[in-house]
Each structure stands twice: as structure tokens, then as C-alpha cells.
Inverse folding.
């Protein structure tokens, strides 16, 4: 059997369908948006190749226009997928405008072979090269591994498509027909196939990076309030403690416990209790400085470590938090939220962070015993 370009185009459709199947099976449909968008891009491209092949069986104008529109829309979805992992805003006029303009122009100039080839190749080339720039430009967020792999994959394809556009401008008579087994078509298909494969691999890497980051976030933060969990707060705190001891710098630990929290739960329900905890933690994060570590020590008890600070700095945090609770949190909840606090500073010769925490905790206990809604030095 003679291998013609049409057979290769059909193989492109089969490849894409298989990759989509593998992605749906391997990554699942409930994945985060970047991978879903990439999968949708491949589905659109599979539809495009099927329509382009079908154009040879009937309704050439309709099928070829549908194929071109699906192809260009597929690249719009690749752009959306990349933007999702790059965490950048998308340009809707670009996403919608390029496919619509391409489809309309393709339909209008269909009878002119060179013109319709030019329309499609210019649209795809522009999309791919723009996407390549977005991925590779300095300062883009995201790990360089997936960005470079995706950028090179799409850049190679974009360059190939741009060459096709140039070829149809300078030598329209020698530009091969779609079904001809001409080397331009063969090279084009090989590059497209490699680009789809490498691009998928790159987006799988981005997906894995994102999943890793998410796991790290889950392992280090408190699920309810978003502040550091106790284990991670201790780990980070220990690093600050060692630095403070080595360089003879100050360090303060502030322990905070919401007053009569059981009563809040019992009176307003557990959900309102959770909301009070969340708002309390948010207010606490607002009133500390950038290097300070805020953690949830357990239940309704929070801990703050202030590097390079003294007791007065911690007491200032305490005052700001009381003001924030009174002005911002209590009106939202509909009842007053107060807390007791214990504060302790690193002392000369102290060998463990636990010692400072223990003193701050004792001071907190004294604050509770002393009538609550106050701070005590330990
Ligand atoms: N809603 C909610 N409640 C919690 C959570 N963690 C702990 N609690 C509750 O917090 C309450 C703490 O009660 P206590 O230790 O008696 O303290 P308190 O009522 O604040 O009294 P004082 O600390 O002495 O002022 C308990 O009822 C816990 O069930 C949580 O994540 N969400």
C-alpha cells in the first residue's frame, strides 16, 4: 500500500485521540484547569484533522473551514492552558478573535488555494510564536523545565508553519496540495507530531509541578485557616531560633488563645466557630510583619514567632490584633471575639525554642487566670 499524506493526516487524528484517551485515563477528568484545557486543545485538533481529511470526501468548503477553525481554536486552548500554569490573565479578544477571523476569511477566500493556505498558516503561526514567547520570555512564572520544553515544541511547530506561509507567498505554484506526499507535507506532519508529543509531556510536567506545590501547601498549612500548621511553624521557627542564637539577635514568641471559644461553638454552632477561627487568623496575618511566622498551635490557640524583635514589638502586634478584632471581625460575626496572650523573648543561654514556647504558654495560662482578654509577659 502506498503511504500518502492523507494517511499521515489520518494518523495525526489517531495519535491525538490516543493521547487524549491516555490523558483522560492517566490524569483523570477532575484535574485542575491547565491540564483540562490542554486536553480540550488536543480534542479540537483531532476534530480538525478529521474534518480536513473528510473534506476530501465531500463538502470541501464546509469541512475545510470547520477543520481550520477547530485547529486554530485548539491553539487558543493551548494558549489558555499555558496561561493557567503561568498564572497570567488571558486576552479574550485574542482567544476568540483569532479563530473567528480565521474561519470567516477561510470561508471567503476558499476558492483561492494560496489565499486560504495563507490565512490558516498565518493564524496558526502567529498563535504558536506568540505562545512560544509567552512561555520563554524572561520573568515568566513556573519552572523552566516545562516552559522550555513546551516553548521549544511549539516554537518548532510555529517556525515550520511560518515557513509554509512564506512558501505560499513566494512560490504559490510549488506549494504542495494537502493530500500530496510532498516533503513539505511530510516534514510538517513529523514536526506537528513531535510538537504534540513534547507539548503534552511539558504540560504533564507543569501539572506535576502544580500537584507537588499543592501537596507541599497541604502538608505545611492548616486546612481551615491557611496559616502554618504546628509542625511547619516549629520547623521554620527552629531555623529562626538558631540564627537568633548564633548572631545574638532578639526573638519573641507570642501565644494567643481565643477566650470562651467553647461557648462560641455551643451558642452559635461549630460552623460559626470555624468562621471565627478563620477570621481571627486572617486578622492576625494582617497585623504581623512579613518575616513573622503565624501558625495554628492547635484548636483555638495560635502562635506567632517574631524574629529580630523584642517584647514591645510583640505587644504592639497584640494591640493591633485587638483593634482589628473589634473593628473588623466582631461586627461581621455579630458577637465579640477576644483573646488572651502570653509572650516570651529569647533569653541568653536558652538552648531550645521549646523553652520560649513553654514560657509564653505559662504566661498565656496566667492571662487566662487573670481574667482573660489581656497579655502577660513570661
Ligand atoms: N469550631 C471549631 N472548634 C474547635 C476547633 N478546634 C477546637 N475547637 C473547640 O474549641 C473549644 C476550646 O475549648 P476550651 O479549651 O474549653 O477553651 P475556651 O472555651 O476557649 O475557654 P478559655 O480558653 O479558657 O477561654 C473546644 O470546644 C473545641 O472543641 C475547630 O477547628 N473548629
Amino acid at each position: 500500500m502506498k503511504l500518502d499524506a492523507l494517511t499521515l493526516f489520518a494518523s495525526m487524528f489517531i495519535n491525538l485521540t490516543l493521547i487524549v484517551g491516555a490523558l483522560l485515563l492517566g490524569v483523570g477528568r477532575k484535574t485542575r484547569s491547565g491540564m483540562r484545557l490542554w486536553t480540550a486543545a488536543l480534542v479540537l485538533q483531532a476534530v480538525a484533522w478529521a474534518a480536513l481529511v473528510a473534506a476530501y470526501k465531500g463538502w470541501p468548503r464546509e469541512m475545510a473551514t470547520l477543520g481550520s477553525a477547530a485547529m486554530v481554536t485548539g491553539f487558543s486552548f493551548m494558549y489558555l492552558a499555558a496561561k493557567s500554569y503561568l498564572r497570567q490573565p488571558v486576552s479574550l479578544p485574542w482567544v476568540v478573535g483569532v479563530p473567528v477571523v480565521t474561519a470567516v476569511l477561510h470561508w471567503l477566500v476558499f476558492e483561492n488555494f494560496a489565499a486560504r493556505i495563507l490565512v490558516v498558516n498565518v493564524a496558526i503561526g502567529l498563535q504558536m510564536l506568540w505562545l512560544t514567547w509567552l512561555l520563554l520570555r524572561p520573568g515568566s512564572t513556573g519552572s523552566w523545565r516545562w516552559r522550555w520544553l513546551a516553548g521549544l515544541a511549539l516554537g518548532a511547530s510555529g517556525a515550520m508553519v511560518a515557513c509554509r506561509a512564506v512558501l505560499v507567498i513566494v512560490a504559490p505554484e510549488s506549494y504542495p496540495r494537502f493530500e500530496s506526499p510532498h516533503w513539505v507535507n511530510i516534514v510538517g506532519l513529523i514536526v506537528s507530531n513531535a510538537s504534540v508529543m513534547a507539548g503534552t509531556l511539558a504540560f504533564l510536567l507543569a501539572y506535576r509541578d502544580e500537584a507537588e506545590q499543592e501537596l507541599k501547601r497541604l502538608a505545611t498549612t492548616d486546612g481551615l485557616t491557611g496559616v502554618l500548621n504546628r509542625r511547619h511553624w516549629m520547623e521554620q521557627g527552629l531555623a529562626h531560633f538558631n540564627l537568633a542564637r548564633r548572631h545574638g539577635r532578639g526573638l519573641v514568641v507570642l501565644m494567643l488563645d481565643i477566650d470562651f471559644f467553647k461557648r462560641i461553638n455551643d451558642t452559635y454552632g461549630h460552623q460559626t466557630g470555624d468562621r471565627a477561627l478563620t477570621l481571627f487568623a486572617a486578622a492576625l496575618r494582617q497585623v504581623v510583619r512579613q518575616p513573622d511566622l503565624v501558625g495554628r498551635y492547635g484548636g483555638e490557640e495560635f502562635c506567632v514567632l517574631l524574629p529580630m524583635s523584642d517584647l514591645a514589638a510583640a505587644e504592639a502586634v497584640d494591640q493591633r490584633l485587638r483593634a482589628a478584632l473589634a473593628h473588623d471581625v466582631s461586627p461581621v460575626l455579630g458577637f465579640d471575639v477576644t483573646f488572651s496572650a502570653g509572650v516570651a523573648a529569647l533569653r541568653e543561654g536558652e538552648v531550645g525554642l521549646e523553652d520560649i514556647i513553654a514560657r509564653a504558654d505559662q504566661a498565656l495560662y496566667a492571662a487566662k487566670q487573670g481574667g482573660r482578654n489581656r497579655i502577660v509577659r513570661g
The CA atoms of residues 46 and 292 lie 52 Å apart. The mean pLDDT is 92.
